[in-house]
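Key result, reporting period 2: structure in, sequence out.
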């Protein structure tokens, strides 16, 4: 089954940037593009019936689609105007997509609300990768010399889905993968005789972390031999190290596990921080 690259469009500047990004990525990967717009009837427009309102919505989406089709005449594009809530419609659309691409408002005054409730819920609930693109994103940001940066943690299986997405993307773009692993000194009480022996065997903490990163990346190097790889291990918090490495990235890829709270689903702190502060598009990939 061929999965499309799906873009959620709502007419805002950031969603149109996301549509442009999705169109370029679909061309690179030889995939179709699906455009989804979720809407609800406006009761305040009581004199205007549902079909008329839907026509207005379809006309607006159609204009955006014609623009991206004009830039990429070879691209197969389908459009779905769905009468449903945005989160419901976008999570459902993501299930059948190679990735879901959404717009992000970018930096704002109140950290923690830059994504909006819809974006955060979709990222937390979607079972497929979600890419966030800021308004003003331009193809020039994908120029040669900018890496696809990916955060890696744990063992090879822990971040396999994240690394796979990064290598597939880099292969489609002719880019380098920069795999990043952060580490910190554990508290003294975390040491055990077994862990101390393990660290002694590899020469200390930093060599241990470098070995762990190399082992996680190795199968993807073998699977994508055409993709150059840079391995980066640095002491510091995962979010800060990843953001520093992503300063000149064309795409940053992070993993996520969703957490359920009394006020809804939340994503992890690393993904949350990167989404709020990275200047390039960010792909959030559910851990397998």
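The corresponding designed sequence is given below.
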């Amino acid at each position: 089954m061929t999965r499309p690259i799906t873009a959620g469009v709502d007419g805002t500047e950031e969603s149109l940037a996301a549509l442009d990004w999705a169109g370029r990525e679909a061309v690179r990967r030889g995939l179709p593009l699906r455009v989804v717009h979720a809407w609800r009837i406006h009761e305040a427009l009581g004199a205007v019936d549902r079909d008329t309102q839907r026509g207005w919505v379809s006309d607006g989406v159609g204009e955006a689609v014609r623009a991206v089709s004009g830039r990429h005449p070879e691209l197969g594009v389908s459009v779905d105007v769905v009468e449903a809530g945005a989160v419901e419609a976008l999570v459902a659309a993501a299930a059948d997509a190679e990735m879901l691409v959404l717009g992000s408002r970018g930096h704002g005054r109140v950290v923690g609300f830059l994504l909006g409730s819809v974006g955060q819920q979709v990222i937390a609930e979607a079972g497929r990768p979600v890419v966030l693109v800021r308004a003003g994103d331009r193809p020039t940001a994908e120029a040669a010399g900018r890496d696809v940066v990916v955060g890696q943690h744990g063992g090879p299986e822990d971040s396999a889905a994240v690394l796979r997405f990064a290598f597939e993307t880099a292969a489609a773009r002719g880019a380098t993968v920069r795999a990043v692993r952060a580490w910190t000194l554990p508290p003294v009480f975390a040491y055990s005789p077994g862990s101390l022996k393990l660290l002694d065997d590899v020469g200390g903490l930093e060599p241990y972390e470098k070995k762990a990163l190399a082992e996680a990346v190795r199968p993807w190097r073998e699977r994508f031999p055409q993709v150059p790889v840079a391995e980066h291990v640095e002491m510091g918090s995962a979010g800060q190290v990843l953001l520093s490495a992503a300063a000149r990235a064309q795409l940053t890829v992070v993993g996520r596990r969703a957490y359920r709270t009394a006020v809804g689903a939340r994503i992890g702190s690393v993904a949350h921080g990167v989404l709020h502060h990275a200047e390039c598009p960010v792909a959030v990939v559910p851990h397998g």
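The chain is about 40% helix and 20% strand. The longest strand covers residues 33-39. This case is discussed further under Risks and Mitigation.
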